[in-house]
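Standup notes
- DV: blocked on the single-chain target, sequence here:
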Amino acid sequence: MMVSEPELLTINLRKQMDTLLSQDNIPVEELDTLAQLYHKHMINTQPTDTSTVDYADFLQKNLDWLSAFIDKLTAEKLAVATELTKIQKGRKAKQGYSENN
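- DV (later): unblocked, structure below
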């Protein structure tokens, strides 16, 4: 089965975003740029010589990936929020200790 050019580009963008998200220090700006490219590509991709069934499959694959990607982003966001809360509590505790001593 031959993969269309729009599908190849979409697969490539998804792989790049997945790779960035798996890094310890996520390059947010780069991820944002790729997400914008992905968004533009999805909006501008229209079926030309593909059947409705193939186009629906293309959209479903991207929807499935996007749902999983959003879940990963949400997990990362919660992890960052948890760490920030720990830092803030540590600062308050240190400040309270300094004020009382």
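- Follow-up: The radius of gyration is 21 Å.
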